């Protein structure tokens, strides 16, 4: 593809949006370097990669590749024997952690046997947990090595601390000596040149024997190392040198281990960069609401509801463009600013995006061929420096196009033949279009020439198209219609702008009869098309409403069947419970009667029989209440029902919301879940709602108020806190949620470096009241939120 065409069609702006979706500098560079393929197999592979990544993206809810740095320069230094700094080694550790995390996220699930090259790339990532964990354990920061990096380092630092304590103890004796205190500028111990010193006043220099290491800017204070601590400071200084040597040895050892894994780490960098790039394509598709176009090798282009990605999504007018079946040349006419150029650029940009492996912002079912070349002559190319007019500049470029364009090429020509005599310009345009058609190229051209409209009507393989213009509002609608040539609307626009009628009529006299009849035919065809379009929209709306009603009816039928099965299962369970309880009661009654059978006292026998009769009657009452409860309900049918009230639907054993007042038949409309249905009032009971939602009291989160108790947040925001502070908040938050009977809450920790998220999730993993937790899905905050389910 030519760079000029990519620039004219604004492909660079798409690449900028793509690069913004990448997480790493190498990934962004790969996005910026993306160029369209011309081989069908390469295009199909690139599109399949984007589709696979998009499927994983939607499943995870976020971009699975975290930010990582370019470690290739570090690996090159390690391979030649250089010692990497602590910060460099932390970067290597981060790269290993990144590879491990991505590999775990992309690991194929056992039941997932579908081929997926993106997952296979993740499986090829190299892991080295030993090196990664050793770096984390031994290197605390770019400036600090842990005491536990080696036994020798721990020993040296213990000796340094011991020496420091001895020096401090010795110098403290100076500070607490009343005779020496008056010689000191301040009663403190400080350090100069890695040696412990005291701040002594200049005039008392001779009273404190020792070595002078520094003085204040005013010269009033000297920093003196008393002779009593010189030897100890010398020991500490020697130990400091040993410490630096041991640290250098440790860093050298880690550098050697890094060099030993350099090839695997270099491969990791390549795979991670490629994955970052692929998931950036998926993220861009998600942002643009794009779809994977169906590829074909038949030269068929069919864009359904295509939206130019550089136009505001709320303002862009979708376009339907098709080429390659009934015709290969489309001539688009219409007024200026009507959207003709946008149609050309949308078609060309979609071709570039498709062949670069990007999804296009259109509807499912859109088809795109794979072009060997895309040519575009769009915009004002006048060049003062080269003394070229607009016509000359355009024609120079068109000549270049004609030298190369042929089969499997897309040619886009804006205002073909403009800038010269209309008669000659129209003739040239016809000849150019005929040449391109004979060569088998797919061609789209815009023009104002009526001759080209008539030419397209009579020429096989050519078709007219037009962009609509609202004469009443003097504004374009940007809708593209194929099959009808466009009108210039010059007379109507001039009339609306105030040009007098006599001038317009005089202008009409200069038109030939053929021109007038042709414009009238176009006007009539346009009116008929608009009428047909309105009728089609009405029919489509009616069809959609009928389909929606059918779907709702099917859903209602399924839900009623599920409710019926649920009620039957509940009834069976109740029946089993009743039978079991009745058997137990009967057996107990029999045992009691047997016990008093031989009793001599008739009164005692009568008393026991009466007790058992009363007890069985009581159990029978409970059974009748249980059996009758779900059907008959308790209480009276509600009166004066109003929309918005909550009621229990007895025959469904569920709750619903009243939508309308009772009608003449005594029925009301209800909203039950996603269903709307009618029910007689006798089948309803009014329900007093005990749980009401309350607005959040803090942090912008959600809260609920239960039984007039205190409000309990459904979300906790700990962004900006360190791990210790956040865990205190989390513990208190989970206790309140548990006491209030909540089953699920959200903890907002942000994405950031992941330290806060890891600390919180490690705490949740061992929390006695946490059943499970997960990262938020799309729409829940994704990787910046942890969703917790309580036991």
Automatic annotation (TrEMBL):
The keyword Nuclease applies. ATP binds at residues 334-341. InterPro entries: DNA_mismatch_repair_MutS_C, DNA_mismatch_repair_MutS_core, DNA_mismatch_repair_MutS_sf, MSSS, MutS, MutS2, P-loop_NTPase, Smr_dom. It comes from the Bacteria. Its EC number is 3.1.-.-, 3.6.4.-. It holds the Pfam family MSSS. Residues 524-613 form a coiled coil. One of its GO terms (biological process) is mismatch repair. PANTHER family: OS10G0509000 PROTEIN, OS10G0509000 PROTEIN-RELATED. HAMAP family: MutS2. This is Endonuclease MutS2. The lineage of its organism: Bacteria, Bacillati, Bacillota, Clostridia, Christensenellales.
